[in-house]
Amino acid sequence: MLKKENPNSEIKTSFKTETSEGKVVSDEFFIQTEFGKSPKVGFDLLFRKYYSNLCNHAVRFVYSQEIAEDIVAEVFSNFWQKEVYKTINTSYRSYLYTAVRFRSFNYLKYEMGRTSKENFNEGLTYSNQNSVQKPDEILQFQELSIKIDSVIQHLPKQSKKAFLLHRLEGQKYSEIAKELGITISAVERLISRALSKLREQLKSEDSI
Q1: Are residues 109 and 154 in the same domain?
Q2: Count of CB atoms situated within 10 Å of the CB of 61
Q3: Distance (Å, rounded) from C-alpha 83 to C-alpha 40?
Q4: How many CA atoms does the CB half-sphere of 201 hold within 13 Å?
Q5: Residue 113 has pLDDT above 70, yes or no
Q6: Which of 84, 77, 78 is nearest to 35 (CA)?
Q7: I need a surface site. Which of 3, 26, 56, 186 has the fewest CB within 10 A?
Q8: Confidence of residue 77 (pLDDT cuts 50, 70, 90)
Q9: How far is CA 53 from CA 3, 56, 188, in A?
């Protein structure tokens, strides 16, 4: 597993922010040039530039900062170890965002019991040949994301609060218990019920 990157770390390059298509292309060209000189240097720059944004992207779907970080680290690890950068025919940015969505989608299907461990791990073998998602895949993912958000928003107030504190903010059960003024076992029950509700609502969805 790759070391988690500090989102506040600075990259001492001429990177521009992603405020326009031209700047994104400029950054992409710079990184690709560095890959040509030294894959290790290019990969380090790529990781520092996109790690934080990719984690924020993944957490919207998996509702867990820890799981989002794991997914992104796994995608980067696969990108480096399998030398995916040698076969990219789109931009690195496009590949990484699509791979993270693909892996997140597989994770959700696995968590909701709609796919096997083997199929879940297929997210790690995501290839450059699949770097452009099919329209039906994009639609399925969007529908799933909307459904998850809807289910969470309709959870009982305290259950929703406990779930989000645990999954998004990474708080321990003891910390949540203190904040909500309840016992640790009560927190466990609230989160368990929230997950059960999610699974119950999503298992019947054709989109998964």
Answers
A1: no
A2: 22
A3: 11
A4: 18
A5: no
A6: 84
A7: 3
A8: very high
A9: 16, 5, 30
Is 89 buried (19+), middle (13-18) or exposed (0-12) by CB count in 10 A?
A: exposed
Give domain status of residue 51, yes or no. yes
Helices (H), the chain: 21-37, 39-62, 65-81, 92-111, 117-120, 135-153, 157-167, 173-180, 184-203
| Residue 184, CA distances (Å) to 104, 150, 176, 196 in order | 29, 27, 8, 18
Q: Is residue 183 part of a domain?
A: yes
**Is residue 36 a contact partner of residue 30, using CB atoms and an 8 Å limit?**
no
Number of folded domains in the chain? 2
pLDDT of residue 81: 92
Q: Output the six-digit token pair for 203.
A: 């298992």
* Domain membership of residue 177 as a residue range: 147-203
Q: Are residues 44 and 123 part of one domain?
A: yes
Residue 168 in contact with residue 129, Cβ under 8 Å?
A: no
